[in-house]
Design goal:
It is a single chain. This protein has about 130 residues and is mainly beta. It is about 10% helix and about 40% strand. The strands form 2 sheets. Strands 1, 4, 5, 6, 7, 8, 9, 10, 11 and 12 form a 10-stranded antiparallel sheet that branches. The radius of gyration is 13 Å and the shape is globular.
């Protein structure tokens, strides 16, 4: 996977509250950390979106999915498949107490090493919620 669009700045006239990764249609999207699915819904231009609530006020968002493999109330572990990527890749966001955070800051400092390594951590489901 390749990082397509970074956190912050404007995207189509609004704040971009996550990062976008290129992905092949049908590629598995995995939970970044253990939690509970609190919503699965269509969100206009963001497409099929899954929201997962985690400990300590964190939540993650996975959008642009072709198919969801979870439903509201599903408990997921880090690395569990939550869905498959749609044609335009995967949008990934992290929120701390409702405030959007730059996901790169939570990916075990790997982003500074190389963008490919970040997406490998994300795909492998390593917890991104431990700084």
């Amino acid at each position: 996977m390749l990082l397509l669009c970074a956190f912050s700045g404007l995207l189509n006239g609004s704040m971009h509250e996550g990062v976008d990764f290129a992905a092949n249609r049908g590629e598995n999207c995995k939970a970044a950390a253990a939690g509970t699915v609190v919503a699965v819904l269509e969100r206009g231009s963001m497409g099929l979106t899954v929201y997962v609530r985690h400990e300590n006020g964190f939540a993650t968002v996975y959008a642009g999915l072709e198919k969801a493999h979870v439903s509201v109330g599903t408990t997921v572990a880090a690395g569990d498949i939550i869905g498959t990527a749609g044609a335009d890749g995967i949008h990934f966001g992290i929120y701390a107490n409702g405030v959007p955070c730059d996901p790169k800051a939570y990916i075990k400092r790997a982003y500074a090493v190389n963008e490919q390594h970040v997406t490998m951590l994300f795909q492998c489901g390593n917890s991104v919620l431990n700084r």
